[in-house]
Design goal:
Length: 245
């Protein structure tokens, strides 16, 4: 890493305002316990594990910022990383923008990370940051697909869905987070792109700018359904056994 790239400052924004209905009723998904610790705490620790990340901004439910601040205060986080909690909006896009608005001056690289991906390894985080520092306006970690994918004509009545195409699997990737961005470019995207938003990298694509992929990691999966919680617990148990994590 060059002397110039070392001067780049990196912040991570974690939108955690969603309720996560697919995990069932109860607390918001980000606050669900994983090995006795809320997923959000694991996600913050995953970002803070990178020595390049000096600030983590957690975007809390609109009426839950105080609760989230108190929750994070109960768990040990690296001293070298500052933490800021701000209330979010009604949509993920709005919450990310509120997180961006809360960033103090001086940050060149911004990560946007799903609170529901609590186990992303630090090597993946660092790879995303390094690719942005090397000049990419947007970077996503991603994995090749193990399954064949079919494009279908959707049906809402429960009837069988006709297949209309089989995309070439070698050209497809399953995208993870953190996604990394040049700060100014991401701010411009949030100010100008409002339609057909699926993720922040997609907003950069709509600006006509390049998005590049770096290797993701199998442990950076998204905890969405109850079975994912079982898998996440197993990953944590293996880490404890192997690394004393």
């Amino acid at each position: 890493m060059s002397e110039e790239s070392r001067s780049f400052r990196t912040a991570a924004v974690i939108p955690a305002a969603g309720r996560g209905v697919r995990l069932g009723p109860g607390a918001p998904k980000a606050l669900r316990a994983l090995n006795g610790t809320p997923m959000l705490v694991h996600a913050v620790r995953a970002m803070a594990a990178s020595r390049s990340v000096s600030l983590v901004v957690v975007v809390a439910p609109p009426d839950g910022a105080t609760e989230v601040k108190n929750l994070l205060a109960e768990h040990a986080l690296p001293d070298r990383t500052d933490l800021l909690v701000v209330p979010g909006g009604e949509s993920r896009q709005e919450s990310v923008k509120l997180g961006l608005d809360a960033l103090p001056p001086g940050f060149d690289v911004v990560l946007v990370h799903d609170a529901a991906r609590p186990l992303v390894p630090v090597d993946t985080v660092d790879a995303v940051i390094e690719a942005v520092r090397d000049g990419a306006p947007a970077v996503v970690p991603a994995l090749p697909l193990a399954d064949t994918v079919k494009q279908v004509e959707p049906r809402t009545d429960g009837s069988p869905e006709p297949v209309v195409a089989t995309p070439e699997r070698s050209r497809l990737r399953a995208v993870q987070t953190p996604q990394g961005f040049d700060h100014a470019t991401l701010v411009r995207a949030h100010e100008s792109v409002t339609e057909n938003v699926t993720d922040d990298a997609g907003m950069i694509e709509q600006l006509g700018l390049p998005v590049v992929v770096v290797p993701g990691h199998e442990e950076a999966f998204k905890v969405t359904r109850p079975l994912d919680l079982v898998l996440a617990e197993a990953v944590l148990a293996r880490r404890r056994a192997n690394d004393g994590f």
